[in-house]
Design brief:
Layout (H helix, E strand, L loop, with lengths): L1 H15 L20 H5 L1 H16 L17 H12 L2 E2 L9 H5 L8 H21 L11 H25 L26 H4 L7 H19 L12 H15 L2 H15 L6 H5 L12 E5 L12 H5 L8 H4 L2 E2 L1 H5 L27 H5 L19 H4 L4 E5 H15 L2 H15 L11 H15 L7 H7 L3 E2 L15 E2 L12 H6 L36
Antiparallel strand pairs: 1-3, 2-4, 5-6
Helix pairs in contact: 1-3, 3-6, 3-7, 6-7, 7-9, 7-10, 9-10, 10-11, 10-18, 11-18, 18-19, 18-20, 20-21
Length: 549
């Protein structure tokens, strides 16, 4: 009876709830709430409604600000684009129409700036929604139904994913440009269903170990209910996705044996098969319609997106209504040149020699001829409708594809068993699914890991998936070289190891409201690379005393 009563309280909170973030925790349920017998009878429906709202929230236009204040405010897709730009793999013809360019240039990343604020509070909004459900569902309770247990487990998976993303964005990584020594090993504050206003006012950054254990605990609870409950659609994480999330967390933590185990479990449980060439390049359904490879995806509708606040409008150069049609997003030439002509993924981008591939676009050959070299054709407007945003932007958006699991498994096996075993897995995946003549040989782990990273950058361009791997492996970032297609000096930077802004700052408003964060913020990466452009063949100046090779 108490369980059902609490579920109804949750439903009531859904109707009237205000935004609740880390620095402003509210009581979720009033103590004097009551429910009639009729209301209690509808409790399962209320719970389902709360959980069903989570995927919609993740693609909600103007999620944080609640109004057309900033065009990057579009939920999880904003984080996909931010992480893609952090990598330096996205190039613009006109960056004035690219709202994510500071993530690439390592500028405007200070603690009171928008580009710290948005990722932080977007993810804590997701956490809040999950907490609301978790507060009324104990998945270990033997008296609840499989359906209620399953819905509670889905909420644990959503929360785990949110904290994993917070961790990889805000946990510091050593670099030669900023001094992270004071905050190494720290992530973000953990806010649970039990966090009160008083706790939130002095809630320290969780250590790396604390956060990893917390996320894995959430995923353990997700497993409990999803063993017997199958979500209604792939808009929700299922058991295979939970295995996949565990694999990602274990990779970040360096537990490569566990990562390999769970990546394989995710592959086997999902039954998913990698996208084929026809699916990848379809001019009307390419990367806008889920395939058998998509283990978890989101689906915005006209009701939860704006004509400008939508993923397709920012990533698809074919879409008339969006900014991409003006910025003309391209793949960085250095990455493009690293793709062999026998890899079918190469012709998602316009080759300088347009006779090499038979490019297809619903906009026609004349339009294609006018577009810049290396421009992306990966993401298409739905149904080829490039003029009506309510149709063309209503695309499925991938959160997890099975291809990621194959690449995680390969690297993890190489790191935990033998490089040769990992190389074999990578070769098998590539030959069977991407490039029939692929053959990689590496005697050392580092070379092999960097090859896996390269394949992830190619595979997941625009999806943001490769960023955690890059931040973990700390490759040199080279954006200024002979023939670079970066046109503006802001982007012509070379870094020894990672860019300084691969560690984001916690927003000042959050620090001001939480005394435990004061004096414990990440260093400001803005301007940490002062020389622009960095001379070709040189790295931007930094504090060489901080370098750890």
């Amino acid at each position: 009876m108490i369980m059902k009563k609490n579920i109804f309280k949750l439903f009531s909170a859904m109707v009237v709830s205000a935004t609740v973030l880390t620095g402003c925790i509210e009581e979720v349920f009033p103590e004097d709430s009551t429910a009639t017998s009729e209301q209690i009878g509808a409790s399962a429906t209320a719970l389902e409604a709360a959980v069903s709202g989570m995927p919609s929230q993740m693609v909600q236009g103007y999620l944080v600000y609640g109004s057309q204040t900033h065009e990057t405010d579009l939920g999880y897709p904003s984080l996909m684009l931010a992480q893609s730009e952090l990598l330096g793999d996205v190039v613009d013809t006109d960056y004035g129409y690219d709202w994510w360019w500071p993530f690439n240039a390592s500028l405007q990343m200070y603690d009171n700036g928008y580009y710290s604020y948005l990722p932080y509070f977007t993810l804590y909004k997701f956490v809040k929604s999950a907490n609301d459900v978790i507060s009324v569902v104990d998945v270990t309770d033997p008296t609840i139904t499989d359906e209620i247990r399953g819905l509670g487990s889905i909420s644990h998976a959503f929360r785990a994913f949110s904290y994993y993303t917070l961790m990889v964005l805000f946990e510091p990584v050593e670099n030669i440009y900023t001094d992270c020594s004071k905050v190494l090993g720290l992530t973000v504050p953990i806010v649970t269903e039990e966090t009160t206003n008083d706790i939130a006012k002095s809630n320290p950054r969780a250590t790396h170990e604390e956060m990893v254990n917390f996320i894995l605990s959430d995923l353990d609870k997700a497993e409990i209910g999803l063993e017997s409950y199958i979500p209604t659609s792939k808009n929700f994480p299922d058991l295979a996705v939970v295995y996949g999330l565990k694999a990602k967390v274990y990779m970040w933590d360096g537990q490569f044996d566990k990562a390999a185990e769970y990546a394989r479990k995710a592959i086997d449980k999902s039954g998913a098969t990698p996208m084929n060439e026809a699916q990848w390049h379809n001019p009307t359904t390419g990367f806008n319609t889920a395939t058998s490879a998509w283990m978890w995806y989101l689906h915005p509708t006209a009701s939860n997106m704006g004509n400008l606040a939508n993923f397709i409008g920012h990533i698809s150069n074919e879409a008339d209504w969006g900014y991409a049609s003006l910025s003309k997003l391209q793949m960085a030439r250095s990455l493009y040149d690293a793709i062999p002509t026998t890899d079918f993924r190469k012709y998602s981008y316009l080759d300088p020699d347009r006779s090499v591939y038979a490019y297809q676009s619903v906009r026609g050959n004349e339009w294609l001829d006018e577009q810049p070299d290396y421009m992306s054709l990966k993401f298409r407007p739905v149904g080829g409708d490039y003029s009506t945003y309510s149709v063309g932007a209503a695309a499925d958006i991938p959160v997890m594809r099975v291809e990621e699991m194959y690449l995680i498994e390969a690297e993890a096996v190489g790191a935990s068993q033998s490089v040769a075993a990992g190389v074999q897995l990578l070769n098998n995946f590539m030959k069977q699914n991407r490039q029939s003549d692929y053959s990689f040989n590496a005697g050392d782990l580092r070379s092999f890991q960097l090859e896996v990273l390269k394949q992830m950058r190619i595979e997941f361009w625009g999806e943001g998936v490769a960023f955690p791997t890059a931040k973990r492996l700390k490759p040199d970032v080279i954006q200024h070289y002979e023939g670079t297609n970066f046109k503006e000096d802001n982007f012509k930077i070379n870094c020894k190891g990672v860019k300084p802004n691969w560690t984001l700052m916690i927003p000042k408003t959050e620090v001001d409201s939480n005394i435990a964060l004061q004096g414990m913020n990440n260093p400001d990466p803005t301007g940490a690379i002062p020389k622009r452009p960095t001379p070709i063949g040189e790295f931007a100046p930094g504090n060489l005393s901080l370098i750890h090779i």
